[in-house]
Amino acid sequence: MNLLANTPRLYVNGVALWSPRLPGWERARRILAGLEPAPAESAPRPAPELLPPTERRRAPDTVAVALEAALAACKSAGLPPHSLPCVFSSMHGDLAITDYMCATLASTPALVSPTKFHNSVHNAAAGYWTIAAECTRPYTSLSAGDHSFGAGLLETCMQALSAHENILLVAYDIDARGPLAAVALSKHLLSAALVVSPERGTNTLAAFELRLVTGEALTPSGARAENAALVAGNSTESCLPFMEAIARGGTHDVLTLATPTLGLDTRIEVF
Questions:
Q1: Residue (of 69, 71, 28, 30) closest to 50 by Cα position
Q2: Cys staple from 133: which of 81, 110, 140, 251, with CB 3.0 to 4.6 Å?
Q3: Considering the domain boundaries, does residue 209 fall inside one?
Q4: Distance CA 149, CA 26 (A)
Q5: Does residue 80 sit within a domain?
Q6: Number of helices (H) and strands (E), helices first, in the chain?
Q7: Number of folded domains that form the chain
Q8: Could you report the per-residue pLDDT of 48-103, keeping only the tens digit for each?
Q9: How many Cα atoms occupy the beta-carbon half-sphere of 137 within 13 Å?
């Protein structure tokens, strides 16, 4: 069932992607489009330039990968980072720090690190971003399990349509550690970012029409097998078909799930 009577048209005014095998949008675009092979070796963790050197070194993986993509998407759109409301989406935030917190509280609770404690909250990456970018615009931090990218995209689109302005989406996840890895399945580092608006911008890459569909047996789109393998196992991997469509050019239909029974049916036209 289509839940939107009128299909709104939205624009991708900026884009970014980072994973160890897709290190930055320009290279990722060529790899996802089949124009060059993926690197055999994994790239090291990014060092987001927005953070001072000391903070850059001690920032957790979630912050490093999320801020790398966030800043790159703003640069892609030609927009100052402080100007954008933003949506940050992640399955459970920093699962490595959550594992550390649980293990330490169970064994030696007095030794919990204050730094790790403040990095354990789900909105840590968004907090780092707003401070480093000096952004006082509203931000949203959300979680929807394996569907967090789709839920984040839906939230971003609705904010863009209601506020009629550019909204930054940053979706990210990292390795799960310890006992949590058995129930919160996620591997490697991955972050995708989009700047979405109901109006074309200076550097617009693509337009898409959005329909919300509901049903008990929705099947999300898949990326090409060789591309899917590059991010397989990360909880944000559902971003890849949308990103692959932009990379390949032309017109593509992509269905992304925001919940098990709610899908974002998008027709993406790349300029």
A1: 71
A2: 81
A3: no
A4: 21
A5: yes
A6: 9, 9
A7: 1
A8: 999 988 888 888 999 999 999 999 999 999 999 999 999 999 998 888 888 888 88
A9: 17
266 belongs to a structural domain: no
The b/e string for 74-88 (b: 16+ C-beta within 10 A; e otherwise) is bebbebebeebbbbb
Region for 6 from its dihedrals, namely left if φ exceeds 0, alpha if ψ lies in -120 to 50, beta otherwise: beta
| pLDDT digits 0-9 by tens, 221-263 | 999 999 999 999 999 999 999 999 999 999 999 999 999 999 9
37-54 pLDDT, tens digit per residue, is 999 999 999 999 999 888
Residue 129 is part of which domain span?
13-197
Helix/strand/coil percentages in the chain, nearest 5: 40, 25, 35
